[in-house]
Amino acid sequence: MRQDYSRTAEGMAMVRALEQHQSPRIIDDPFAATFLLNPYYRWLARSYCSSRSVLRFLRYWAPGGQEFLAIRPRLVDDLVTVEATQGLKQVVILGAGFDTHAWRCRVALTQTIVFEIDHPATQQTKRERSRQLGLPDNLRFVAVDFEQDDFAERLLAAGFDPELPTYFVWVGVSYYLTAQAVADTLQRLSTLSRAGTKLVWDYMLAEVVNGTSSNREALDKGRRAAQLGEPWLWGLAPADVSSYLAGFGFKLIHDYEPAELRERYAPARPLPMSYVRIAMCERAGS
Ligand SMILES: C[S@@+](CC[C@H](N)C(=O)[O-])C[C@H]1O[C@@H](n2cnc3c(N)ncnc32)[C@H](O)[C@@H]1O
Asked: Are 88 and 82 in contact (CB under 8 A)?
């Protein structure tokens, strides 16, 4: 079992911290830098000049990566905030890492409980760093290893109520899990949902995971993730998403195209990377 915090979660915090030096910003996250454990990252993200150098390098090393990874949490914030105006009572973030959704959307979510589920090693680090920010009253931590534990059981024990209006957020995680763990997670989400419960999640293209993609940049990033100890294990073809979700009782509402995301959030920036896709769906039923 992993004993240390997730380096990819720290990478996501770095993306949001760097975005603070962009103008205009895709996402405004003044809390992200608190979760940079690596002192070198902290130093790089601190000043305008150093962060601009990193962003220039990233644009060359991972074209569209900064854009996609900044748009993803922004889209989640927007989707959840709209639901919050319509009586949303619970947000459950699976594999929350160092995401600061609960802080960014604090004002919109005063009537909504936010459950953050993550691996115990990463969550412990998050709890420690969160002291600097102060914990939002509506935030609940639930420590789970998706490969070993029944997260539904832990979530219910933490006070989750399947009968209340809920948004499940599951981004930046599915591709690190085995096919079995992904299916088990969706099955559990299905049993925890009532008709109309929303789920936003993302998936890696199957061709990248199985190595048949012609996108060399994507294959290279996959090797890099494996070197960091978090290999990409699972993916899906866009054509199969609707039927795959239907097998768990979810109806696909929208599978976001990179061009659409750019148009909405960053028209003057490069096209967001296209080998991870964000999909929004809802629990079917009467
Ligand atoms: C790339 S990070 C994404 C974090 C966050 N969702 C974001 O977008 O900033 C992946 C997250 O998945 C979590 N994760 C990966 N495998 C896991 C497992 N087996 N059990 C629980 N969490 C896991 C990691 O701890 C990490 O926080």
From this structure: no
